Amino acid sequence: MRIGLIGAGHVGSTLAYLCSEAGDEVLIANRHGPDTLHDLEVELGPKVHAATPGEAARFGDIVVLAVPFEQYRDLPAAELAGKTVVDACNYSRPRDGRFAELEDGRVTSSELVQWELPGAHVVKAFNAMRWDHLRSYGHSAGANRRYGIPVSADDQDAKWRVFDLVEQLGFEPVDAGGLADGGRKHQPGTTVYTADLWADDLRDRIGVD
Ligand SMILES: NC(=O)c1ccc[n+]([C@@H]2O[C@H](COP(=O)([O-])OP(=O)(O)OC[C@H]3O[C@@H](n4cnc5c(N)ncnc54)[C@H](OP(=O)(O)O)[C@@H]3O)[C@@H](O)[C@H]2O)c1
């Protein structure tokens, strides 16, 4: 699979590592430009290349957003049209500034991302586990049990594609619902957020089968 990563910090570089280990081709981008990602390219090997955000967006069958949430207004929307876009971002007021509609619960952060990227199929995933746990908590497919990753989306095909990616990286996808109802179940402040739950326990906790 071809994976585009926008954001090359803790989460972006972790997903680049996991995807390349799983055999995917990865283009990864940050804000300061591909030249600043040379060391990361060397560290992660031949399947990972640095790019601009637009190039990563064009390249990916799946494109992951791993940037500070408030940067969602500064993404390559045209290149992301038609793509399955994974939103791994979380709203944090001290970092992102105040978004009243998020604080009073009117919308979820992933709905705002979807509205900003009307041509993309946004899927919220990989937001609820710490990056260092994401890096090392995956289990192979035959394992007795695996950690659950909650996944929310309004587009069912895009959701299935991200289910496959989650499984490929060693986790069990748990369908939390749509971006509004489901996204609300795995945002910061919920009982599943960074709780590192086995998939069955995660299903119980968010109330899905
Ligand atoms: N840290 C965690 O454990 C964790 C877990 C799950 C979800 N999250 C969420 O995932 C997101 C990323 O977190 P992180 O810890 O990986 O952050 P981070 O280490 O600070 O990395 C942020 C990355 O985003 C890049 N970036 C910022 N604005 C950009 C833009 N407009 N276009 C392209 N790249 C841009 C930065 O590039 P430069 O370095 O060039 O500025 C940097 O590579 C956040 O929303 C966070 O809440 C974090």
Please outline the helices and strands:
Layout: E1 2-6, H1 10-21, E2 25-29, H2 38-44, E3 48-51, H3 53-59, E4 62-65, H4 77-80, E5 84-87, H5 93-96, H6 100-103, H7 109-116, E6 121-124, H8 131-136, E7 148-153, H9 156-168, E8 172-177, H10 199-206
Bound molecules: NADP nicotinamide-adenine-dinucleotide phosphate.
Order of helices and strands: EHEHEHEHEHHHEHEHEH
SS field, number of helical segments: 10
Mind summarizing the main beta sheet? 8 strands, mixed
Mean pLDDT: 97
Backbone CA Rg: 16 Å
CATH topology, which one?
Rossmann fold
The outline comes out as globular
CATH-wise, what's the superfamily? NAD(P)-binding Rossmann-like Domain
Distance between the termini: 29 Å
Describe this structure in words.
- The chain is an alpha/beta fold.
- The chain has a single domain, classed as Rossmann fold (3-Layer(aba) Sandwich), CATH 3.40.50.720.
- It contains 10 helices and 8 strands.
- It has helices at residues 10-21, 38-44, 53-59, 77-80, 93-96, 100-103, 109-116, 131-136, 156-168, 199-206, and strands spanning 2-6, 25-29, 48-51, 62-65, 84-87, 121-124, 148-153, 172-177.
- It has an 8-stranded mixed beta sheet with strand order 3-2-1-4-5-6-7-8, with helices on both faces.
- The longest helix is centred in the last third of the chain and has 13 residues, at 156-168.
- It is globular.
- The model has no long low-confidence stretch (mean pLDDT 97).
- NADP nicotinamide-adenine-dinucleotide phosphate (NAP) binds at residues 6-12, 29-32, 53, 66-69, 71, 74, 88-90, 92, 127, 130-131.
- Residues 6-12, 29-32, 53, 66-69, 71, 74, 88-90, 92, 127, 130-131 line the site of NADP nicotinamide-adenine-dinucleotide phosphate (NAP).
